[in-house]
Amino acid sequence: MATTDRQNLLSDAQPMGTTNNTLEPDLEAGGQPSILKQSSHPVCLIFHFLFRVGAICTYFFGTWFTDNFVLIFVLCVLMLVFDFWTVKNVSGRLLVGLRWWSENKEDGTTTWLFESRDPSRPLNPVDSRLFWTGLYVAPAVWVVFGILCILTFKLKWLLIVAVALALNFANVIGYTQCDKDAKQKWATGFASNMLGGSGAGGLMGGLMSRGITRMAGSMF
Fold this sequence. Notes:
It is found in: Golgi apparatus membrane; Membrane. This protein has 220 residues and is mainly α. It has one domain (35-219). Helix content is 62%, strand content 6%. The protein has helices spanning 35-38, 42-61, 69-95, 125-151, 158-195, 199-219, and strands at residues 98-104, 110-116. It has a two-stranded antiparallel sheet. The longest helix has 38 residues, at 158-195. The protein is globular. The N and C termini lie far apart (66 Å). Mean pLDDT is 77; it is low at 1-7, 11-28 and 197-220.
């Protein structure tokens, strides 16, 4: 799909860091709101972990219930695919205001494209912290599973691990590059504002202009 045909979904997302003030927060025993109550998108936060935790649990505990490797393989792959799509298209946009995708050009090359939130929209720290934690911890767990497969000579289970690592690392690389691109854009925009006469740059320019005017007035 061409870039011009894409709708900027980030502009339609609920502003980061906002909560539903119409509900009374459910307090835990320590008097602090629960994580879901602190989250701006609790349902999205649940699904950010649901499929990846489900795939890991199916892989680890599946043999307790069945010896059918094909069934465990299919269930794990389905949950991994659901997780990849959810993280790539939903939770990244809502929880951290980032979105990435790739497009294939006519010459056969692939271009990575990134979208990011407006920096004036603050992030919910709970959503941001849990998003990045889930993004990086899951592939680390699959790496451990892969090492155990090799050490125990259960090589057929490496098929599941390979699929999991491919899908998880695609999102890790995509969001890491997207976050880096967003920070570069924000830094460039800030520098442009400083030099273009807005914000602090405009203030400094005004002070310099008034200083020159006063100096000229004192000389004549």
